[in-house]
Amino acid sequence: MANDASAASPSPQVHGISVSPLTQCAHWNSLLDIIAIKHFCCNKFYACISCHDECESHCSGVWPRSRRDEKAVLCGACKHILTVDEYMDSGSRCTSCKSGFNPGCENHWGLYFEMDDAGAGKV
C-alpha cells in the first residue's frame, strides 16, 4: 500500500502523573499547559520535568544546543511535534494549530535545553 501523506501518524505516548489528553499533568494543568517534552536522557515524552523525575530512576539530561533541530516538543492540542528551535522561536504558540502555550515555561527552559551562560536560549 502506498504511503498516504494525509494519514495521521500516531502521536507519541506522553508519560507522567495523571496526564490528560492535552498533556496537562498533576503538576501543571492550566489551559496553557499543553506541551510535552521529549527528554534527551531517555527519549521519552513527559508532561513536565517533575513527572520525569517521579517516574524515572535516572537524572534528566538537557538537549545540547547542537541538537536543536530535533523534534522534541509535542503540542497537546493538535499533536504536532516541534523542533527545539521551532518551540523556542514560537512566541508560546503552536506553529501548526496556533494554540497558546504557557509563556512561563520559558523560565524553565534550562531544565530541558542547553542555554548560553546568560540564561538566554538563543545565541
UniProtKB/TrEMBL annotation:
<dbReference type="GO" id="GO:0005758">
    <property type="term" value="C:mitochondrial intermembrane space"/>
</dbReference>
<protein>
    <submittedName>
        <fullName>Zinc finger CHY domain-containing protein</fullName>
    </submittedName>
</protein>
<keyword id="KW-0863">Zinc-finger</keyword>
<keyword id="KW-0479">Metal-binding</keyword>
<dbReference type="InterPro" id="IPR016694">
    <property type="entry name" value="UCP017292"/>
</dbReference>
<dbReference type="InterPro" id="IPR008913">
    <property type="entry name" value="Znf_CHY"/>
</dbReference>
<keyword id="KW-0862">Zinc</keyword>
<dbReference type="InterPro" id="IPR037274">
    <property type="entry name" value="Znf_CHY_sf"/>
</dbReference>
<dbReference type="InterPro" id="IPR052604">
    <property type="entry name" value="Mito_Tim_assembly_helper"/>
</dbReference>
<dbReference type="Pfam" id="PF05495">
    <property type="entry name" value="zf-CHY"/>
</dbReference>
<dbReference type="GO" id="GO:0008270">
    <property type="term" value="F:zinc ion binding"/>
</dbReference>
<feature type="domain" description="CHY-type">
    <location>
        <begin position="18"/>
        <end position="99"/>
    </location>
</feature>
<dbReference type="GO" id="GO:0045041">
    <property type="term" value="P:protein import into mitochondrial intermembrane space"/>
</dbReference>
